[in-house]
Design a protein that fits this description.
Blueprint: H1 2-15, H2 26-29, H3 35-61, H4 65-91, H5 110-117, H6 121-142, H7 152-177
Helix pairs in contact: 1-4, 1-7, 3-4, 3-6, 6-7
Signal peptide: 1-23
Domain DUF305: 37-176
Pfam families: DUF305
Length: 180
């Protein structure tokens, strides 16, 4: 079991993004953000925020080093991406929300979130990994909105999300197998 945890930890460390998406050249690159780019940000901000909140539970409720390392990486990278997308909305004087409700794949309900926060140990770890795999898969489905973006920063964000979250999904599936 210890060997599996060590292997999972090493996989997780290798996932830490060297360059998570950050808003870099705002003045030049935001002029051609499309309505779809803006809608993506309005949807992805709360999606990412839920992943950050789930990860904060992991930092509090898990003693598994691999899961804590993964959670730290998620808080860091998705927190930076949230800041970037919030800047897009602010710079373009766009609303922080779309003004109507849209279901987003991978999101868990408030009730499920509360239940997750109340778990500890291996029960938490398994529930967290299971929920986060689905959550990341939902983000991968959403990121296709940026495929036709003309904005270089939006395209880079999409590429970074795809790269990091696919890698994290692979790691989480390996971690989940250790709970079988």
């Amino acid at each position: 079991m210890l060997k599996k945890v060590v292997v999972a930890f090493l996989f997780t460390i290798s996932l830490l993004p060297a360059n998570p998406a950050v808003a870099s050249s705002h003045a030049k690159s935001l002029s051609n953000l499309s309505g779809t780019d803006i809608m993506f940000a309005q949807m992805m901000i709360p999606h990412h925020q839920q992943a950050v909140d789930m990860s904060k539970f992991a930092l509090k409720n898990s003693s598994n080093k691999a899961i804590r390392s993964l959670a730290t990486a998620i808080v860091s990278s998705q927190g930076k991406e949230i800041a970037q997308m919030k800047f897009w909305l602010s710079a373009t004087k766009s609303s922080a929300t779309m003004g109507h409700h849209m279901d987003m794949n991978g999101m868990i309900s408030d009730k499920q979130m509360k239940a997750l926060g109340g778990l500890k140990g291996a029960k938490f770890d398994k529930a967290f990994i299971t929920a986060m795999i689905e959550h990341h898969q939902g983000a991968l489905e959403m990121v296709v909105m940026l495929e036709t973006s003309k904005n270089s920063e939006a395209k880079k964000l999409a590429k970074d999300i795809l790269r990091v979250q696919k890698s994290e999904i692979a790691t989480m599936k390996k971690l989940l197998a250790t709970f079988a």
